[in-house]
């Protein structure tokens, strides 16, 4: 097993890493494997696996009343992690989120990951559930991701929630956290958002992976602001190629980011799905080449379960 921070510090050249969304509940495990196999051709040092909290649905009983159901839409983080470890020789970095869980439940999940030999996690707050305007923590849960980072750091020191645990094992987690070049949408400004990010680093985060962006200057300005604020850990830029024209509207709404007008014009000028797909590849390839020329340690690609465009970009840029 290798820690991501060690991979970053010991790599002689920049590399590509990838992030996958687990398949929906009811899918065959081969659906997961088939989404990873094309990426393995590029020998990634690690692959991130996103975590999705349970969703709330209300079913109409037909008599004017509704029944509330809590549903898991995807296999658990532990199941996905175990399946990948069984099939592939690659570092797995599961996401651990605050949303939908108590502190005790999160600690148990972390200890289960430790028993499995996992040494890398990404600590995130997570999003609000459908129907909530803002994130609401669970009872006895974490409100902010820096609190989760502190828990993981404490486990690395052998400190548990239960004070009666004596001489508990020390976990060995390397902790990644998220950064937002265009600021988190809930932050009042970028300066405040970077102060929150610094809190996560001071709590024990080892490195930062950014939210996707389509204008590299936003990343360079963000990185500079982080360094000026005293954040010294590695910062990995995260990219996602546009693949269909409707993402011009979907991505800004879902991720609260800007899309440069030049890219908008290029996508809108295409007449077919294939042309829009290729335009997205070309833009992301140019982004990748420019980032590498500016000396980034790695580039993290959000694959959304699709690999063909990512493969083309990585082969052209690295």
Question: Overview of this structure, please?
Answer:
There is one protein chain. By secondary structure, the protein is of the alpha/beta class. The chain is built from eleven helices and ten strands. The chain has an eight-stranded parallel barrel, surrounded by seven helices. The protein has a two-stranded antiparallel sheet with strand order 3-4. Strand 5, helix 4 and strand 6 form a beta-alpha-beta unit. Helix 5 runs parallel beside helix 6 and helix 9 packs antiparallel against helix 10. It is globular, with a radius of gyration of 20 Å. The model has no long low-confidence stretch (mean pLDDT 91).
Features of this protein?
single chain, 318 residues, alpha/beta, eight-stranded parallel barrel, two-stranded antiparallel ribbon, 11 helices, 41% helix
Helices and strands, with pairings:
Elements: H1 4-10, E1 15-20, H2 29-40, E2 46-49, E3 55-60, E4 66-71, H3 77-87, E5 91-97, H4 103-115, E6 120-124, H5 145-156, E7 174-179, H6 190-203, E8 207-212, H7 216-228, E9 235-239, H8 247-255, H9 261-268, H10 273-293, E10 298-302, H11 308-317
Parallel strand pairs: 1-2, 1-10, 2-5, 5-6, 6-7, 7-8, 8-9, 9-10
Antiparallel strand pairs: 3-4
Helix pairs in contact: 5-6, 9-10, 10-11
């Amino acid at each position: 097993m290798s820690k991501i921070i060690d991979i970053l510090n010991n790599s002689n050249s920049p590399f590509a890493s990838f992030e996958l969304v687990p398949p929906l509940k009811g899918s065959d495990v081969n659906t997961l494997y088939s989404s990873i196999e094309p990426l393995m051709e590029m020998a990634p040092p690690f692959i991130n696996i996103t975590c999705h909290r349970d969703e709330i649905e209300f079913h109409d009983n037909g008599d004017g009343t509704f029944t509330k159901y809590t549903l898991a839409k995807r296999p658990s983080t532990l199941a996905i992690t175990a399946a990948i470890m069984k099939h592939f020789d690659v570092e797995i970095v599961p996401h651990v989120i605050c949303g939908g869980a108590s502190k005790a439940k999160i600690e148990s999940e972390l200890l289960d990951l430790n028993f499995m030999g996992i040494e890398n996690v990404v600590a995130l707050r997570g999003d609000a559930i459908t129907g909530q305007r803002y994130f609401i923590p669970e009872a006895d849960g974490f409100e902010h991701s820096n609190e989760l980072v502190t828990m993981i750091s404490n486990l690395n020191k052998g400190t548990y929630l239960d004070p009666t645990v004596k001489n508990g094992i020390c976990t060995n987690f390397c902790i990644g956290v998220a950064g937002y070049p265009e600021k988190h949408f809930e932050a009042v400004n970028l300066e405040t958002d970077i102060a929150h990010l610094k809190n996560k680093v001071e709590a024990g985060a080892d490195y930062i992976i950014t939210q996707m962006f389509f204008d590299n200057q936003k990343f360079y300005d963000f990185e500079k602001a982080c360094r000026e604020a005293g954040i010294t850990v590695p910062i990995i830029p995260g990219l996602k190629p546009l693949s269909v024209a409707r993402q011009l509207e979907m991505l800004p709404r879902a991720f609260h980011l800007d899309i440069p007008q030049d890219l908008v014009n290029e996508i809108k000028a295409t007449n077919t799905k294939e042309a829009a797909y290729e335009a997205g590849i070309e833009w992301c390839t140019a982004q990748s080449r420019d980032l590498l020329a500016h000396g980034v340690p790695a580039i993290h690609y959000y694959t959304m379960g699709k690999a063909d465009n990512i493969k083309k970009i990585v082969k052209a840029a690295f």
